[in-house]
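Annotated sample (chain length 363).
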Amino acid sequence: MKPCSPQLCLRRTWATVSFLIACMVNTFAHDPGLSTASVRLRPDSIDIALVLSVKDAGELVNLDRHHADWTARFERAAGEALEIRINDQPAALATAKCSFDDNNNVSLHLQFAGRPAGKFQLRSRWLALLPPGHRQFISIQNAKGDMLAERLLSATANLATIELTSADSPAVEHAAATSFLDFLSLGVKHILIGYDHLLFLFSLLIVTRSVLATLKIITCFTVAHSITLALATFDLVRIPGAVVEPLIAASIIFVAIENLVRGDQPKGRMLLVFAFGLIHGLGFASVLRELGVGTTGTGVAMPLLSFNLGVELGQLLVAALLVPLIRMFHERPLFAKRWVPACSILAALAGAFWLIQRVCFYA
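Output written by the structure step:
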């Protein structure tokens, strides 16, 4: 096969990148769909607080503008939300109450009759009706508030099972191992579908020529977002998503424009990367907060560590794929002259799209 000319390769690459970024801007960045179910095992009942966004709730119940009607519809549908079994026997739903908060969330407060003992199972039936990729974070506590288990459920894995013992120690150990892998996987998936984070990283690396400079950028970004991820998860820093998400989009625009103005390997980028990394860490933290991690003050360290480790693994995977390609293109004379500015312009346009979208339509 005859090799293509540099001009033809450039045009094909430009078309491919344009298509990929066009796909990105038409997708909400890192919006997997998240809900929580906090379970409290009492001596003669099981109390559950099920929380999901109004947007996701609309997939389950046809919502209109009559708020009181929403409440009645959800309370009628509550019996289909969860299935509780104790020693393979179904527990009956005793009461269901619905409420709405100022953050566009719906809360269902469910109480099942039964004495929790032995084999306890919770199946989330609504997951099959929600959009693909939706995850539900389940936390199970005893009557004293001690954490017994944590699970991250999906449509294909919608069942949580624990064995209740007198000391509850086997349940806790098994839950920790399972939950670590769940949050590790969530961290990897989050960065791989976090198109805004990836585009920011791509915009930084595209003008980086040496392996050392690449490692410095990745390390600086990692340290920065790990700091704010921890601070936000422990609720030491709280900045609304309506502020954080537009700032993430603005960081892409800033770096892309700097690539155009200052050219190859702009000096003083470490401070810039660190500052924007702090902002991106707040975006990562929103995932854990939406799952309820840190809101009870218990069980924070393991989800935080495993989720952050998953983010780093996903980030390193992307960098391992990008860096060899970027270095190969840098060996071509036309790359720095045409391809880098073209990609920077596309990145700036994608960032501008997200910025306008998040300022005007953020919910």
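Annotation: The CA atoms of residues 49 and 109 lie 5 Å apart.
Annotation: The radius of gyration is 23 Å.
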